[in-house]
Design goal:
421 residues; alpha+beta; Beta-Lactamase; Alpha-Beta Plaits; five-stranded antiparallel sheet; rod-shaped; disordered N terminus; coiled coil; bHLH_dom; transcription regulation; MYC/MYB_N; protein dimerization activity
């Protein structure tokens, strides 16, 4: 194990151009309290934890972005979230929650190779990218670095390998370190070689014409072929499998994939909700939902206020003196206590009058008083109230000879209505 995780000084690659000091990488050791027995043995997960726990500086998380078979996409391969030091969060700040949220959202992220993103840039150039400080993260021109800075990350590193990119993030300011880069590359190359050896040593089962798997069971069949025919038949006859062992594993994988897709959709929706809520108190999901509910209530109050303001603005009516020949002229009267809209149309010796006004100061009484003063005989009248605010009056009257004109009748009614205020 020591030989696998200890990089050789003779095979060290040429350091990237941004390093001026090139110390030789030291063997990877795990500090007390973080022994390999206490860590999971899931291959890449174990390697990431060993790398983080062996460093003197404190790294918050590690993510390995795995390249797709067509070398077009970098997606989440595995990761380990370590969190912040206890002393760093003793002041009650929520930077640890921000970093944990940033790591959780990263589970659903992917990067197209060739785009100006930090992991894609490191994989395309085969050179590590090391950013330290808020200014460097903000001016990198990459959304990934800006999001990391927003969630309390001060140092962001991307180290490329043949199968992907290792991303390290820390809430502390950590300077460029060639030893760390060498250790990471050595561990990743060891993991790649081990995975390749395992894939070559395990033959792929093939399906024969009769529906049975061949390849993996050839050695078992050869052992049975050396025995006698009778016992062989008796031995094989009770081997009736209702369900192959592979189907159970396949079902488990399907459940895991379904759960992963469900969490991915949920994280995407929380991420979209986070982008539209302007003020977020904390980065946990419960606080995000509470802030979203508060924001929706504020929006609803603003909508009601705007609707009330729109109703008040309807009181301002512009007087329209349109062409009265053969049409339906409409005129309005704006006065201090209320707003009146007056429509007049002559039909022979009769006239149809429509008055729209606010339901204030008894509009029907004022209209009847104006008709009485003008000595107009009322044939028909209707009064209706709309939403307890607007009153509409329709009146059919007999027009005398002196007022046989739309303009004359309208002007006379407006004068009388003004006097009755």
């Amino acid at each position: 194990m020591e030989e696998l995780i200890s990089p050789s000084s003779s095979s060290s690659p040429t350091p990237p151009p941004f390093y001026s000091i090139q110390p030789q990488p030291q063997p990877l050791t795990i500090p007390p309290g973080n022994s390999p027995e206490a860590l999971p043995t899931s291959g890449l997960q174990y390697i990431l934890q060993c790398l983080l726990h062996s460093r003197s500086e404190w790294w918050t998380y590690a993510i390995f972005w795995r390249v797709s078979p067509d070398h077009a996409l970098l997606s989440f391969g595995d990761g380990h979230f370590r969190g912040k030091l206890v002393s760093a969060t003793a002041d009650g700040s929520n930077d640890g929650d921000d970093a944990e949220w940033f790591y959780a959202v990263s589970l659903t992220r992917s990067f197209i190779i060739g785009e100006p993103t930090m992991p894609s840039r490191a994989y395309g150039s085969l050179a590590p990218v090391w950013l330290t400080g808020s200014h460097a993260l903000q001016t990198c021109g990459c959304d990934r670095s800006r999001e990391a800075e927003m969630h309390g990350i001060e140092t962001l590193v991307c180290i490329p390998s043949s199968t992907g990119v290792l991303e390290l993030g820390s809430s502390d300011l950590i300077g460029e370190n060639w030893v760390l880069v060498q250790q990471a590359k050595s561990l990743l190359s060891t993991a790649d070689e081990t995975a390749a050896a395992l894939s070559q040593s395990q033959p792929t089962p093939h399906l024969s014409k009769n529906g049975h798997f061949t390849g993996l069971s050839s050695s078992v069949d050869s052992e049975h072929s050396d025995s006698e025919g009778g016992p062989m038949v008796d031995r094989r006859r009770p081997k009736k499998r209702g369900r192959k062992p592979g189907s159970a594993r396949e079902t488990t994988v399907n459940h895991v994939e379904a759960e992963r897709q469900r969490r991915e959709k949920l994280n995407h929706r929380f991420y979209a909700l986070r982008s539209v809520v302007p003020n977020v108190s904390r980065m946990d999901k419960a606080s995000l939902l509470a802030d979203a509910v508060s924001y929706i209530k504020d929006l609803r109050a603003k909508v009601e206020e705007l609707e009330a303001e729109a109703k008040r603005s309807k009181k301002e009516v512009v007087v329209d003196q349109g062409n009265s020949s053969g049409g339906t002229p409409t005129s309005g009267l704006t006065c201090e206590p209320a707003t009146i809209e007056l429509e007049v149309k002559l039909l022979g010796h009769d006239a149809i009058i429509r008055v729209q006004s606010e339901n204030l100061v008894h509009p029907p009484a004022r209209l009847m008083a104006a008709l009485r003063d003008l000595e107009l005989v009322v044939h028909h009248a209707t009064v209706s109230v709309y939403k307890e605010v607007m009153m509409i009056q329709d009146v059919v009257v007999r027009v005398p000879e002196a007022l046989q004109s739309d303009d004359k009748l309208r002007s006379a009614l407006l004068v009388m209505l003004q006097k009755s205020e």
